[in-house]
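QA checklist item 7 of 12: single-chain prediction sanity check.
[x] sequence parsed
[x] length recorded as 478
[x] structure emitted
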Amino acid sequence: MPHPLGTQPSKIIAVHLNYPCRAKERGRIPKQPSYFLKPPSSLAGTGDALVRPADCELMSFEGEIALVIGRRAHRVSPEQGWSHVAWVTAANDAGAYDLRYADRGSNLRSKGADGFTPVGPRLLPAADLDPAALRLRTWVGGELVQDADTASLLFPFGDLIADLSRLVTLEPGDVILTGTPAGASVTSPGDTVEVEVSTLDGQTSSGRLTNPVVESDHPLEAWGAMPRVDAALRADAWGPAHPQQPALAPEIADALRGLATATLSSQLRKRGFQHMTIDGVRPTDPGAKLVGTAHTLRYLPLREDLFARYGNGMNAQKRAVEELRPGQVLVMDARRDPTSGTIGDILALRAQRRGAAGIVTDGGLRDSAAVADLNLPTYYAAEHPAVLGRRHVPWDTGVPIACGGALVQPGDILVGDADGVVIVPPDQAEQLIADSTEQELQERFIAEQVSAGEPIEGLYPLGPAWKTAYEQWRTTQS
């Protein structure tokens, strides 16, 4: 379908980083905006296919808000910048990471291929909009993967236009792609990517820009740069919120599920890890076992003016739940303040439906009886009926946090049972499982001997006099 701009722009300018949540994902916060160009021939409309080039595997999507210039802008001020925008619509800054190395800095081939800039479907009059009160959402396969507003951009839209116009004259019809929020990742043939821009109240919308992803039906001729990927590029393309594969292998999860947290804690201490327990939390069901990887949410102390900005709508608490992937544990830093709820039954139910392995908070739990009935392993500091706005501002997700006095990084492995919750560094897991399994076998043997009347001296811990008997006993264990 033709794009809705009507005329071909003289240029398409894309901003590298503009949303704080995306900057945190990338590990840098720029002091000034930076840009790259996309050719006008990359434009497409809703319904057009995003064609992944042959031999490429890392086709990316980036939902963005597109500004369409209405009046020539040359050396305008930030205060004047927005008045030069005629239209606002949705865009997808698509690309192929596999070719990024070939034009490092310009992104020409990786971002500029035909059809890699779909926009639309409707143009919203800029004069009717507040540029600081727009919402951007992206779905892949019907699943919401990006959700952000423009209240706290690193570089407001008027500033971008003023900055560019110092040296580059913006002509009517030119398009500015204003950056993508957290959650941009890789998509594959068979997926459908949808992007929508709306006002915060949802009353005005661009409609959903919808583009199916397909595989190219012709080979990429070999007289130029060819696709190239490695592990680092894959990790960069997929991003922290969208792992390419489950972070925790099933065999690792099963092995940890069979081990006691007391044993794991003992083995961690032998390795010099002295602060790997989340203290002060208890389970809704002491008989349940928690095993999964951490997805983090951080609360800051209540400040009423900031809660009004960060606590309403699709805030960090709700985003954290919607970002959950199967097998992840939602881990919350509430500063060990249990005098307000940090999650209740509705969001816990949503976490369960998204495949979460469990919930851990060092704050309060609302609707505790209903949450317990979900059979979702949940650890918390205390029951409390108040909503989070009594004490907390939901601030950000996917960052290192403190929970129950322990540092938890996204991707850490959490294991919980009736004794509490232990953090397992992923690179320690395999050897920790082997040593913990051996420790538990020895303790079973020791328990049998004590039950038979043997004294513990020389037996617990297992001493040389009992090693032969233990080895013989061990051969009888399945």
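[x] summary fact logged: The chain has 13 helices and 29 strands.
[ ] second reviewer sign-off
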